[in-house]
Specification:
By secondary structure, the protein is α+β, with helices and mostly antiparallel strands. The protein has 2 domains: about 90 residues, Nuclear Transport Factor 2, Chain: A, CATH 3.10.450; about 100 residues, Nuclear Transport Factor 2, Chain: A, CATH 3.10.450. It is about 30% helix and about 25% strand. It contains 5 helices and 8 strands. The strands form 2 sheets. Strands 1-2-3-4 form a 4-stranded antiparallel beta sheet. Strand 3 and strand 4 form a beta hairpin. The longest helix is centred in the first third of the chain and has 22 residues. It starts with 6 loop residues before the first helix and ends with a strand.
Length: about 230
């Protein structure tokens, strides 16, 4: 015999179905940003023309020139309780002032809802900045002589093409990490954007010399020995 459901039961089932239907839409607001959203947030947040904004491409910058603003990171902005808007945080390093710009973009309205600048906020290096640091080292005569000697010591061979014969890694350098070993130029690191560069042979043997590169000034400030 078929059981007839009461009106109260039917209403309860309808409420549950409505809740289940609604939950995925809410959860999607917590998802990471899509590539399209990242592109849109970057375009809305940064006033610099796309042709001058550095992302992951390689740029050739002379020591005297100020590098263009560097896009560091785009990530989802955490929502306040009950907030459902899709928000993005866009971090850009302004080399002209040595400040990190933080823009919050509402992706539903395509508007910047807040913007601020911070000093001494150094996010991880981008691929473009790693390439710049490497290029500055390889183009410096004094550094090249040190690299040639170190490569010869380790491998017994001649360093003819650093970009092909060496592996390069780098991380943001702060003066506070080695306060006793730094010269006056390196003590600006943190206030300015710097990289400590680690060099390896193709067999992953690390060099005993590690250059400090001031990316804001476009110079190698000193070498740290291991």
């Amino acid at each position: 015999m078929h059981k007839i459901l009461s009106l109260r039961t039917l209403l309860h089932c309808a409420t549950l179905l409505g809740t289940l239907t609604y939950l995925p839409a809410t959860a999607n607001n917590l998802d990471p940003l899509s590539p399209a959203e990242i592109t849109r947030a970057t375009q809305r947040a940064n006033p610099v023309a796309p042709s001058t904004l550095s992302t992951t491409r390689s740029t050739t910058t002379s020591n005297a020139a100020t590098p263009p603003p560097e896009l560091l990171l785009v990530e989802r902005h955490p929502n306040a309780k009950g907030q459902t808007a899709r928000l993005a945080d866009v971090y850009t390093y302004d080399y002209s002032t040595n400040e990190t710009l933080i823009d919050v973009v509402d992706l539903d309205t395509n508007q910047v809802i807040s913007s601020r600048r911070e000093r001494n906020l150094q996010l991880p290096l981008t691929a473009n900045e790693l390439q710049r640091a490497s290029a500055l080292i390889f183009a410096d005569d004094e550094q090249r002589a040190l690299l040639d000697a170190e490569f010869k010591r380790i491998t017994g061979q001649t360093l003819t093409n650093p970009t092909q014969q060496l592996q390069v890694k780098a991380f943001v350098f702060h003066a506070s990490s080695l306060p006793e070993q730094l010269n006056a130029a390196s003590q600006q690191c943190g206030l300015q954007r710097c990289a400590q560069v680690l060099l390896y042979t193709a067999d992953s043997v690390v060099f005993e010399v590690s250059p400090i590169v001031n990316l804001s000034a476009g110079v190698i400030t000193q070498n740290i020995g291991f």
